[in-house]
Amino acid sequence: CKMKAHVRASRVALVLRRQRRGVERARAEPARPRRSAPSRAAGHVRSSAREEAVTGSADEGAEEGPSPAGTPTAAKAPSESSAAAKSWALIQKWGERVIRMQANETGALGRAKKVAVFGGGSFGTAMAVLLARNKPTLEVVLLLRDEELCHTINTEHRNTRYLSKWELPERVRATTDPAEAVEGAQYIIHAVPVQHSSAFLAGIKDVIPPTTPMLSLSKGLEVGTCKMMSEVIPDALGREQPLAVLSGPSFAVELMEGLPTAIVAASEDEELAQEVQELFASSCLRVNTSTDVAGVEMAGALKNVLAIAAGIVEGLELGNNAMAAVVAQGCAEIRWLAEKMGAKPATLGGLSGVGDVMLTCFVNLSRNRTVGVRLGSGETIEEILASSTQVAEGVATAGAVVELAETQKVYLPVLTAVARIIEGRITPRDAVESIMRLPQVPEV
After folding, report:
1. pTM: predicted TM-score of the whole model, two decimal places
2. Which among 14, 256, 364, 443 is placed 20 to 30 Å from 283, CA to CA?
């Protein structure tokens, strides 16, 4: 028995010595690089581009393990074989391929000879200029009501009412004749304010070819009907029309300056959405495509009302905590109603949703935020509108949003408070106090 116990002890000691030697050897040797999964170039690329961009693996250039005895090693500069370098090269390769595709004369921009723009406000003018910059030979015609402004644009090449500091490209001109504006146009851009769109389109529907795609820039809900522009346009024309809507965080001034911007083109016709992408995309404008028309439109309409709420918080000087709370609550309310209308959660979390909310709620260039600031500072809505030269769609949309929410059985405390303030039924400070006294609820 003593002999057997001695043999067992010897074997145990041998195993322990081997384990210690293995640990010491592992500490002394550099760690083997792990093979990582292939990295994708960009989440929004089309399938063919994805297949081309996603190649190879990142099994080179991994960092070494700790030195013997736990001594830290000096950090090494990343090499050109690192995962980031490989992924960046693939992204650039994909980008060059897409640029070549967009430069193709058979693409939407290559085929286009003329584009009509309904409305000569700041955003319609900026998008007209962007198209003219994308293709210098493209004829872009603004349809306006004001003959004097038309003459100024055609002779001085400036929209002196909006964006007057910028000279317009020579191929951008203006007219008051709907037939002249539309004749021969491959696309029509609709930039007329929502509340005037039905009457405007009904009056010129006979000159609009039923096969010409209309691209809507207008954001809001029609008062009285609570309709989105994707519903207003066919109703006003009395027929179905190829249609896409464009929305996202985009100030006209920054588009004119050529600053980086990203928007969404949404259409139930995926091919049309891609045409719009090809038409507008440039080195300063990214255009993502979507088929979620309801999501893009609802987010674009409701964020204007939320921006008024954010401005009220600023005007009342309630602080940053209150601003964050109001905007977060407003985003939840947008989600509750938009999803009832068929919006996809991913859309509401993207450029046309959260992206546009951030721009409109937090930046002083926002017309709707400015209205809120002035309301919070004590001015009446009548005083504000009388001194404004541009339309803040959130003012009219607020009441329509509450009506639509009632039909969908959705309750929106912040957005409803904005509507009541605009109606003059409650003061901004009383609205804040009422919301703060609401029952405490779980996070939703």
Report:
1. 0.79
2. 364
